[in-house]
Amino acid sequence: MARLDITETFCNILFPGHMHTQDSLSYATNFKFQDTDTLIVTYPKSGTTWIQEIITLVLSKGDPTIAQTQPNWARAPWLEQYYCPKFLEASMGPRIITTHLPYHLLAPALQDSKAKVIYVARNPKDVVVSYYHFHKMANFLPDPGSFTEFLSAFLKGTVHYGSWFDHIKGWIGHAKDIQNFLYITYEEMWQDLHSSLEKVSCFLQCSLTEDELTSSQKHCSFNSMKENAMVNYTLIPQEIMDHSKGKFMRRGKMGDWKNMFTEEQSDHFDAVYSSQMVESSLLFKWERPEDALQLMITINTPESHSLREIVKCS
Ligand code: PPS
Q1: In the predicted structure, residue 302 carries a pLDDT above the cut 50
Q2: Which of 19, 40, 49, 96, when mutated, tests ligand 1's pocket best, judged by the most ligand atoms within 8 Å of its CB?
Q3: Residues 13-69: tens digit of each pLDDT
Q4: How far is residue 254's CA from residue 256's CA, in Å, rounded to a whole number?
Q5: Least trusted range by pLDDT, from 95-104, 119-128, 281-290, 300-309
Q6: Which of the residue ranges 85-94, 178-187, 278-287 would you say has the lowest mean pLDDT?
């Protein structure tokens, strides 16, 4: 399936036709979750591959064999991509599924489900920079134009996979409607991978010994993942992902946006961010570790039972 120049539009959101069809997107929205499923939810470039690796290592108790022998898209397939049914049929044991879809498209499928949902968020300024560089190497995504042009499309929500603002507001705003929900940030994982592994293992009810945690931490580090062909996308042919134009495991840093944004772009971003988030009670800060906790407490409204569970876990 090449379809590198095809864009699928589904419910007013653009998707790369290379991996998505109308049928694959409908399959996702009508999916029957099992209570034993774990669903990873991210907006692109927010730490998807990282959390896939973390979950893999946690469930294999720090043993890297699966992480080093099975590509991430086979062990945690994207629900909306056409090959998903094939991998799920072949999967043994509890299923790990990944999605970039916004909440409203999966809400009916998740209703009453006990599947575990892990939402990973990342500072959107770093997301847009990572996404911009990814567009340059991924031949199934359109030419991003200049960074200014791409930033403008990102802030308008017209990029592939839709609006970052709608994605985070939809999922976090409905966290209370999801029975088993864990919120974690890229920044938290970056600042304290050990505690993040513990948090994920607690949520998955799969406790790890200190040695297992140490091994997991080693294999989930940026340097280790950068060299792992099962997650660094070097298995993908050059005509689909052109590694001469950039690396999938590019920088792996917090705050890299500061090397890309002008002051004017940053001010404009902040203004759009404030107006987009004004109706939401969410307070997002991304720079310091205590801010991640601050966020959890801020969104921990009395009715949000599952978020209180997260605070207990951490
Ligand atoms: S995708 O295409 O949506 O699946 O991309 P995604 O995996 O969500 O995001 C890719 C970015 O995550 C960085 N990454 C990591 N950073 C730190 N440590 C680890 N272990 C790690 N694994 C992946 C990756 O480098 C991309 O970010 P940038 O800023 O482009 O480097």
Answers
A1: no
A2: 49
A3: 999 999 999 999 999 999 999 999 999 999 999 999 999 999 999 999 999 999 999
A4: 6
A5: 300-309
A6: 278-287
Measured over the CA atoms of residue 305, residue 307, residue 81 and residue 58, the dihedral's sign is negative
Give catalytic residue positions. 100
- Ordered alpha helix ranges (H), the chain: 22-29, 48-59, 65-69, 72-75, 84-90, 103-110, 124-137, 147-156, 164-173, 186-191, 193-203, 210-219, 222-227, 263-277, 289-298, 305-313
- Predicted pLDDT at 93: 81
pTM, 2 dp? 0.92
Q: What span, in angstroms and rounded, lies between the C-alpha atoms of 271 and 192?
A: 30
Enumerate the domain spans of the chain. Answer: 29-263
Ligand 1, atom 13: closest residue by C-alpha? 252
Q: CB within 8 A of 259, min separation 6: which ones? A: 129
Q: What would the mean pLDDT of 122-127 be, rounded to a whole number? A: 96
- C-alpha 75/C-alpha 95 separation (Å) is 8
- Residue 268 forms beta bridges with which residues? none
Q: Which residues line ligand 1 (CB under 6 A)?
A: 42, 44-50, 126, 130, 133, 190, 220-222, 225, 249-252, 256
Max alpha carbon distance in the chain (Å)?
51
CA distance 134 to 254: 17
Domain formed by 29-263, architecture: 3-Layer(aba) Sandwich (3.40)
DSSP category for residue 276: H
Token code pair at residue 196: 């993040």
150 and 132 Cβ atoms separated by less than 8 Å: yes
- Determine the length of the chain: 314
**Angle at the Cα of 195 from the Cα atoms of 112 and 299, rounded to 5 degrees:** 45
Four-residue CA torsion sign, 275, 277, 278, 283: negative
